[in-house]
Amino acid sequence: MTNLLELYVKLVGLVLLGFLLGRKLPTTVPTRLAQWLFSVGVPISIVAFLREADLSGQIWIAPAIAYLAIFLGAFLAWLGIKGQAYFTNTIPQDSTQGSLILAAMVGNTGYLGFPIILAMVGKEYFAWALFYDLLGSLFGSYGLGVVLASHFGGGVRNYWQITKAIIINPALWSFGLGLLLRQANIPNIVEFCLEKFAWCVVALSLVLIGMRLSRLNSWYKLPQAAMSLAIKMLVVPLVIGITLPLFGVIGVPAQVIVLQMAMPPAFATLVIAETFNLDRDLTVTALALGAMVLLLTLPVWLWLF
């Protein structure tokens, strides 16, 4: 409970700081901060945390569970759309259907999931969250997510650009570099600075979330967003979380996987929605509401698992 309260103080405090800064600073600041975190901050922090992570056990099953959660979320969202059409005789527009499915699929397992895992579980099991995000959520959003978005929306359909964005992702390259440097001997002062830098990046990631939330002002599609969030943050983590012992995942690793599955929709869904002309207002509402709902659901998952 002490760790949870400490996490809430830091989580809410840093996001609120980012929210206030986002209202005051020029709109270019969040963009530049995001670019720096993507290109420099997050890759270096991955190398730092990987040095202390435990890679033993069935850690490679984490991406497989991520794909299972992604496909289950998409399938349940599709069922929800069909159910709405059956009972109300109204069919949402294709762009709205695409945003509903995307919001139920991919979670914010990086910028938000990493800080929560590190605070509640620790660096020893961070690799489980890392494998879930980089080998699961990343390809789920910019792979399957793009395919669905191109089906339901319009806009740019340059798949080579999407493929290139995945291949040159600095986080993926730093992930490989971190694995190679795990056994390397480096001076204590460098190790100390590397760790402090990594924790600063975690804090800046939360500030960036607050900055982006300060730009989200759409709420009129709340009922539709609630359906996607119920699937993404409640149904999928519960259903798959109960079955984790069947995959041999128990204890702290199971807690990490469940927390990653229970994250709110990723900001990548907004990027995809804008690129392929999906329902941006619905996506924005799901992002903002999901960040607030997490404060209520987080202790529930910690208690259940």
From TrEMBL:
Q: Which GO terms describe its cellular component?
A: membrane
Q: Where, per UniProt, does this protein localize?
A: Membrane
Origin, by domain of life?
Bacteria
| One Gene Ontology term from the biological process aspect of the record | transmembrane transport
Q: Which keywords, in A-to-Z order, does the entry hold?
A: Cell membrane, Membrane, Transmembrane, Transmembrane helix, Transport
Report the membrane topology from the UniProt record. Multi-pass membrane protein
A Pfam family it matches: Mem_trans
Return the PANTHER family for the record. Answer: AUXIN EFFLUX CARRIER FAMILY PROTEIN, SLR1864 PROTEIN
Q: What is this protein called?
A: AEC family transporter
Q: Which organism is it from?
A: Dendronalium phyllosphericum CENA369
